[in-house]
Structure formats: structure tokens, C-alpha cells
Amino acid sequence: MTAPANQPERLRVAHLNPRAPTSFSLTPDADRCAAIAADLGIPALSRLTFAGEIRAEGGEAWALTGRLRARVTQPCVVTLKPVKTDLDEQVERHYSPHVTAPEGDEIEMPDDTLEPLGQFIDLGAVMIEELALALPDYPRADGAELAAPPADDAPDTRRPFAGLDKLLGSRDPDKG
Predict the structure, then answer these.
(1) pLDDT tens, 77-128?
(2) 151: burial class by Cβ within 10 Å (0-12, 13-18, 19+)?
(3) What is the C-alpha R_g of the chain?
(4) What is the per-residue pLDDT for 119?
(5) Helices 123-134 and 30-40 sit at what angle, rounded to 10 degrees?
(6) Is pTM beyond 0.85 here?
(7) Alpha-carbon span 70 to 48, nearest angstrom
(8) Measured between alpha carbons, how far is 34 from 89 in angstroms, rounded to an integer?
(9) How far is CA 15 from CA 24, 53, 71, 149, in A?
(10) DSSP state of 106
(11) Residues 6+ apart with CB under 8 A from 91
């Protein structure tokens, strides 16, 4: 089954066929890529595709498997020169109606591929989240190196605990 060119980014779960996988393919245009790049705080996103399928998985659950491919431009952490990186990531998500959305500021998720199942599966949100997770934390241009810190030949003359023994020795043992 081939996905239409104007496929929606959100699929209604009630419209998915539980007996056959539903294929999808998202390729945002240049304006959408520029908006995603701005949201992620990167200078450029020149290519982005997200393709795969959604299939029923035991009872009322659904599984999403796919592949995310992108070319991003980020500043080098050393020189700030633009660094182009090609990303190719496998994506796997499982949606279950028996999982509730986490609440609170600090939470622990037992399985990072398990998601609560709502009325829609938002392929666009999954694509952007997976792209954000795949971005290199410290992109580095070819040959960019941090300079070694200058050698310090002077010995460390600080003695932060030099007077501690005098203070401890003068304590009254009965008050201790």
C-alpha cells in the first residue's frame, strides 16, 4: 500500500485497518523544514523524510515502525563553522490504551517506546521528536580541536585544611 503524496500527519486510530498495516511517508516541503529547523534551534534542515508503517499489535495496541532520514546543519562547538550531518534513524513506537500520560514535572518512563493511545497518532510530532533526539549534541567540523589548557608549572600552595587540626584539637571533649 503506497501512501498518498498529500498524506495527513495525524492518523485517526478508528480509521486504521487492524488486519493490514497502514504505510505512511512524510516529506515536508522547504518551508516546513525551515519552520522545524527554527523550532529546534538549528540553522538548516535541508532534507527530511519519515516513512514506515502502523500495524495492530495484540488487542487494542498499535505499533509504529519506520525510518527517519535527514540532513541537518549545526554550528561546530569549537569553531562555529556550519557542520552538515546526515541522519538515518530507526523509529519504533508502541501505542496502548492501557498507558496513561505521565503527570508532574519529574517522571520516569519504564519504556521510552511505549506511548498512550489517543484518538490520533501524530506522525508529524513523532518525526520532529525523533529528529530532535537524533541531533548530535556536540557537532564538530573536520579538524576542529580544542586547544590544550596551558601547563601550570607552579605547585599548588593552597592548604585548605591546614588549621583544621588545631581547631579540632582545641575542642572540649565534654561538649562534643
Answers:
(1) 888 899 999 999 999 999 988 777 666 666 665 566 777 788 889 999 999 9
(2) exposed
(3) 26
(4) 87
(5) 50
(6) no
(7) 4
(8) 20
(9) 14, 14, 33, 61
(10) S
(11) 50, 52, 64, 65, 66, 67, 68, 126, 130
